[in-house]
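Hey,
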Amino acid sequence: MEIQKQEIKQLCSKFMLNGMGAQLDTLVSGAEKKNMGFMQFTLELLQSEADHRQSKDQAKRIKAAGLRKSNNLAYYDAEKNGLKTVPLAQLRELNWIDQLFNIVLMGSSGTGKTFLAAGLAADAVKAGYRAYFGSMEDIVNTLKTKDFGKSQMIEYKRLLKANMIVLNDIMRFHLEKNIAVAFFNFINHIYESTSIVITTNKKPTEWAKMLDDEVIATALLDRLLFRCEMVNLTGESYRLENRQTFFES
């Protein structure tokens, strides 16, 4: 029996059936205890491979989306941040992506804007959407360098293909005129095909100051806010409330 198991595992490795090979011992043991028929055992073998590939593909897409850590919204305290449970559930249904609605998450530092945006991006990836999570600085750097390197152009094309893009901390710093124009052109290119989630601690009316161009700011707002849900997050800063210290109590 053990020799046969090893031979099966070697064949699984040869044909890149890694999920099946990893679960073989467990599945054989379960089949023996349940007196399982050949048809059911074969089904469970194939299902183990399918589950493994789905999990691996999801992890790959999470990484490609720019999500560097787990952002499980099951742990998000919606009530604490002034977001009622029902609206959060509606956001997590992701119907707004299909309807090409944008979401603007506004609030002071530490109120959970980034966690919520990243969690929605993770939900989108798990649901099969192409998502991208990045700071305003990340996006601007990609726009600056896309014509000067293969990897930067690949990153830019990923942005264009995304169903959902998170712009984290938008308008945190001033943009030079040529970069402001490039950013507007980018938004103008995607706003009719991509849902955009924005996190910011500035009111949209303040964005003009960061762009130093009222015309561009007005045109940008026109596109971002045309089909848009504004979500105001409130409450105390999570980081300040849970501040850590190395001094003993």
